[in-house]
């Protein structure tokens, strides 16, 4: 226990911790200890830590993240290959189900044309087009993403136009437009994930090596460039870092921008509200919430006012969207044969009951987690509650797109710094991609039947649910929490870190051995 038991950080201590303050994974985690055996074993008791002039844990993590992102790009590169057809025209090579057979599919590629980003005369939310789909109102479609994500796509499409102009002049290498567009998008998404790794490592404080798990996550290898979710994870992780540094206005700014890219960063406001209520820190929460709302309005109001119909498209399509193939509702419907939530939409119809069930289940989970946060013997850590809320949303939602799992990665690393368990879940979640691709390929084209795909979905959901159970156990038994066992209270807590409770409803008392003293 001598290597794991560390005295609490004194009030007013500098942000840079000394080597003895750091948690060394090779000493505390069986997985890392086993990995280091070929290199000489765990770090020695008297080894010099943190004295190298360049290779800090954070820089190592960022380097590993770069390597993981490069591997992810190579995995997706098969989907931007090109060929010359019989007419001598260069085309994107998606013949013979290449995106599914090579498992390189990325939404970025088809959206370039389907969202009319290849047309420089069309601007998101103000321009529309006709499309014959069940969810297109009178055949009219607009950009289907929130404002920040939609503008990100449009800006990269215009950068691709500029690149092609220079390549035609002989200044830059050339390719088909969609390939140039994908590579530009991948570059910025890679930077966004590097920000996610950096911010997570800074929040972890005494556990900077945990950010390596964010950097090399199997989910990053598969999904960093599947969609645009790295933008939201970067804003969320940076917002959490700002909160940990007691800067609620900056937290609000970052969460507001994140919510304008993807709505899930707003869940952190609910988490912070409950924890601030218990600690009597609602003033700081009010500042963060106010700036979040103001930032979101500044970004969205111009489009809401001047391009109302286009701005509403994201919300309208999410309302009309049926259940995803890998949602629990589809799993239930498939294996039971019940068709109540079959998700088949007729034109103009709305899956009202499915939407209502989703909303009720998620709100019930939120209410339960609020009860846990207010009545637990010790106030939960911010990362613990944030992970539970986001996991509850994914498990109860009618859509769990594969890249959504990226949302959980930094939160899980901060909430459950147990490498063996997290790597197990991440591997399972990443492997769902293979049966998903072959299910989409179709049995007629030597793909997999739906039951095989849904079986892996069940395993993935059980793994996430198991992590949730573990977090709840550590909330009610803080002595089993690795972060608090090391002497910390809440590294991501900011004003909540070490704060006394001001409001706590009566709860059934628990045995004293299940708690650890506050720092």
UniProtKB/TrEMBL annotation:
Q: Where are the transmembrane segments?
A: 178-199, 211-243, 249-276, 288-307, 352-376, 421-440, 452-472
Q: Where is this region: Disordered?
A: 488-519
Membrane topology qualifier: Multi-pass membrane protein
Q: Which InterPro entries match?
A: GT87, UCP010361
Can you tell me which residues the record assigns to a coiled coil?
none
Can you tell which superkingdom this protein's organism belongs to? Answer: Bacteria
Major place of localization?
membrane
* Keywords, ordered alphabetically: Cell membrane, Membrane, Transferase, Transmembrane, Transmembrane helix
Q: Where does it live in the cell?
A: Cell membrane
Protein family per UniProt: Belongs to the glycosyltransferase 87 family.
Q: What is this protein called?
A: Glycosyltransferase family 87 protein
Source species of the chain:
Amycolatopsis samaneae
The top of its lineage is: Bacteria, Bacillati, Actinomycetota, Actinomycetes, Pseudonocardiales
